[in-house]
């Protein structure tokens, strides 16, 4: 082979190598874009802190141990309920007393209403009596006025005049006395009305509801809740974690005792470069491999892509950002968390929060476990 032939062969090989590199690069780029993958991922579960609600006291029963699996409804621990049971008994007793007092007040108000009605009837009768007495007084005055001129002509005696005058004065006195009693009766009725209104206000009755009874009933319900809060149950199937308490320890509301890792749903938080986000959509199927189980394949489904992360190169001074002068030769792509729900569960390969995961987006809708099991 002459020198010219060698040059041609070399040029062809060079072109083929370059073309192969370009094709390989395009294929790798296409795979990465259509099926993004990352090893920056971790198995996660929802964590719920378990703490006393509204009650404090010593733990008298602890039914769980660290790392134990619990079923929804299992009793976790019990705070000494005796102080709250005593408060509940007091609240129930006060509620019964309130009901008795309200009933007695209703009876008293009814009796007062009947008494006011009777007094008003008596007042009407007094008005009629005053009218009768005034008529008699007017008659006695008229009679006296008629017989006085007859005394000079001796048609009547002085004794008769004296009797008529006495009758007139007695009638006038009777009218004054009746009016005074009537005025006192009016004041008594008005006072009775005010007392009746005050009694009704103190009764606190609104339609079919009585505010005092409702308030005491609410106290009973609140005391019952406190007794219930003394016993804490598992809200869902979960694993107990970070338990560092023992029987006899005094706990208070809001004090974190341990945590529950929700065993109902496990997921992977995979951090993908922002350049891959256009290729990832909710509902896409995902291949998942976990570092502790080499070769074991799990299926997942994209639930969503995070909408925000905190840039690590932005600082703030007061209300203004601090921007440092830099010369970036290499620009690193930001990563956003992609939440992937794990669809497969295998008792032989249990999930643990924090496991390293490797994920590949398949770019097609995920199948349900039932559909995936069909041939």
Give a description of the structure:
With 375 residues, this protein is of the alpha+beta class. Helix content is 45%, strand content 26%. It contains 5 helices and 16 strands. The protein has helices spanning 3-34, 82-147, 158-203, 211-229, 369-373; strands at residues 37-50, 57-62, 69-70, 75-79, 205-206, 209-210, 231-233, 238-241, 250-251, 258-273, 284-290, 297-305, 315-317, 320-322, 335-342, 356-365. A hairpin with a 2-residue loop joins β13 and β14 (320-322). It is elongated. The relative contact order is 0.17.
- What's the story with the biggest beta sheet? 6 strands, antiparallel, barrel
Molecular shape:
elongated
Protein structure class: alpha+beta
Order of the strands making up the biggest sheet = 1-10-15-12-11-16
| CATH architecture classification of one domain | Orthogonal Bundle
Please give the CATH class of one domain.
Answer: Mainly Alpha
Query: What's the helix count?
Result: 5
Number of beta-strand segments: 16
Mean pLDDT: 84
Report the C-alpha radius of gyration, rounded: 49 Å
At CATH level 3, the topology of one domain is Helix Hairpins
Distance, first to last CA: 60 Å
Elements, N to C (H/E)? HEEEEHHEEHEEEEEEEEEEH
Q: Flag low-confidence runs.
A: none
Measured by DSSP, the beta-strand proportion falls in 25-35%
Residue share in helix: 40-55%
């Amino acid at each position: 082979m002459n020198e010219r032939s060698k040059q041609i062969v070399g040029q062809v090989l060079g072109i083929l190598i370059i073309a192969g590199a370009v094709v390989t690069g395009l294929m790798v780029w296409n795979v990465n874009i259509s099926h993004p993958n990352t090893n920056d991922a971790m198995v996660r579960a929802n964590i719920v802190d378990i703490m006393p609600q509204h009650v404090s006291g010593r733990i008298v029963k602890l039914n769980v141990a660290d790392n134990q699996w619990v079923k929804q409804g299992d009793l976790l621990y019990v705070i000494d309920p005796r102080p709250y049971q005593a408060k509940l008994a007091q609240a129930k007793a006060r509620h019964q007393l309130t009901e008795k007092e309200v009933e007695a007040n209703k009876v008293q108000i009814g009796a007062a209403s009947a008494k006011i009605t009777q007094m008003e009837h008596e007042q009407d009768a007094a008005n009629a009596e005053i009218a009768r007495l005034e008529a008699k007084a007017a008659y006695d005055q008229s009679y006296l006025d008629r017989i006085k001129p007859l005394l000079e002509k001796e048609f009547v005696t002085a004794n008769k005049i004296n009797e008529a005058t006495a009758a007139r004065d007695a009638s006038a006195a009777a009218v004054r006395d009746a009016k005074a009693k009537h005025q006192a009766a009016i004041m008594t009725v008005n006072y009775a009305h005010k007392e009746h209104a005050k009694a009704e206000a103190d009764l606190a009755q609104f339609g079919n509801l009585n505010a005092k009874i409702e308030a005491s009933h609410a106290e009973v319900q609140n005391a019952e809740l406190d007794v219930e809060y003394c016993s804490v149950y598992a809200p869902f199937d979960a694993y107990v974690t970070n338990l560092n308490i023992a029987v006899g320890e005094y706990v208070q509301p809001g004090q974190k005792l341990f945590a529950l890792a929700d065993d109902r749903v496990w997921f992977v938080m995979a951090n993908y470069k922002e350049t891959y986000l256009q290729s990832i959509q909710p509902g896409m199927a995902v291949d998942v491999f976990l570092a502790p189980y080499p070769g074991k394949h799990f299926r997942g489904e994209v639930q969503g892509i995070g909408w925000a992360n905190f840039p690590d190169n932005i600082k703030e001074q007061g209300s203004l950002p601090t921007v440092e002068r830099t010369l970036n030769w290499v620009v690193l792509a930001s990563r956003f968390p992609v939440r992937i729900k794990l669809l497969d569960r295998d008792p032989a390969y249990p999930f643990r929060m924090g496991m390293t995961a490797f994920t590949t987006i398949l770019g097609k809708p995920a199948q349900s476990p039932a559909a995936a099991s069909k041939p």
